[in-house]
Design goal:
about 140 residues; alpha+beta; 3 helices; about 25% helix
Length: about 140
């Protein structure tokens, strides 16, 4: 299946990553510049009333983007958005999936709207979003 032949309801190959470790979070903090202590300092997380630190939302969002770009290529990506729906705890494995939700046209360009989800291994959906992919 290619962007040109994709039909509504078709699914994209999933992207799975994890399990999330404290090392993963420290490395992501360094690479992204996001050193928010809620993601890397267990004492800070405990003072905030949490059991532990949790993954940066943008770490999972990047993996949602990979679902679209691994399938269609970065040059076809026209938009990416997501909404965080739950935290991703340390130890979780995340599976990101996409499904063709709509074929449309914008300014003369044929597009695919891809519904995206990120779900951790206990079944909790942590992100949902969409990508717009050129079908030209």
């Amino acid at each position: 299946m290619t962007p040109q032949t994709a039909q509504v309801g078709d699914t994209l190959p999933p992207v799975t990553f994890g399990p999330i470790t404290r090392t993963t979070l420290a490395l992501y903090a360094g690479a992204s510049g996001d050193h928010n202590p809620i993601h890397i300092d267990t004492d800070f997380a405990a003072k905030a009333g949490l059991d532990d630190v949790f993954a940066h939302g943008m770490l999972s969002m990047a993996q949602l983007g990979r679902v679209a770009t691994d399938w269609a290529g970065i040059d076809r990506l026209r938009g990416l958005s997501s909404r965080f729906t739950a935290i991703t705890p340390v130890g979780a494995t995340v599976t990101c999936e996409g499904r063709i939700a709509e074929r449309l046209e914008k300014e003369g360009e044929p597009l695919l709207r891809v519904a995206l989800t990120a779900t951790i291994d206990d079944g909790t959906q942590t992100l949902r979003g969409e990508a717009l992919i050129s079908a030209a």
